[in-house]
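Workshop exercise sheet. Pairs work together: one partner reads the sequence aloud, the other fills in the structure field after running the prediction. Swap roles for the next sheet.
Pair: D.N. / O.F.
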Amino acid sequence: MERRAEQQWRAQERAHTDAIDQLTDAHLARRRTGAGHPVEDFLFVYYRHRPGQMRGWHPGARVKLLGDDPCGRGAWAFYSHDEEGVFLDVDAYLAKRGDTVRFVHDLLAATAARPPHLGCFGLHEWAMVYALRPGEQRHENWPLRLGQAETDAVTESLPIRCSHFDAYRFFTPAARPLNLLSPTRESQTDHEQPGCLHATMDLYKWATKLGPLVPGALLVDAFRLARSARELDMRASPYDLRELGFDPVRIETAEGRAIYVAAQRDLATRAEPIRRRLVEVCGAVL
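Structure field:
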């Protein structure tokens, strides 16, 4: 077990809370006024991991924090302590959450082993509004760039190959038969691939699910990546978000699709080391 000096880990903890505050302050300010933002608030609403939870720094498994026990960290769930300091009780954690650790490990390892598919063009967002009537859209405050009829026409004109169940399940009933795949929760490990924007965003979700196993710096990296993926997700969506400063990626054009593929490839490249680190976090305790 690594023995980490108090001066070192306290500095890491301060850096973590400062980074989280910078990433969450705007969201908290909007929440106090009842305002919302379809890009920047999504990760907090969809994944339901609160900013206060994000501020809780963890060193990861097999690290002992030397010195006094500030704020009773030894009383935190799954932590223990001795005369030197505090540390995560890995056996206690696995006894409670071992199934989750194994699932995340297997899912991310399987995803990493596949080549990225970069030809989806973000059509899952278009399939989520396909053939809807007025008042049925998920982001009703934001207009469709092309109107409903033209949005439907674009959705019908391009092949939809969505491999991510948690995107596919929000397709409208009329759009589901347009998808070339039929992902299910049970087949998730068989379908997910590293080019998928939602699989990239979900790296943040899996980091939160693994809780104290994940070092604070890895959680911050996963959140920043997920935020970038969400921005591309909505810029390529049928919604007009120019009022918020997001220029559209016009996937209805060949030029727009090329821009999307390049951005998707960049996100997939950025996701590789984060996915690998999460697999290593799981593998180190299994």
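Discussion prompt: The chain has one domain: 2-119+187-283. What would you look at next?
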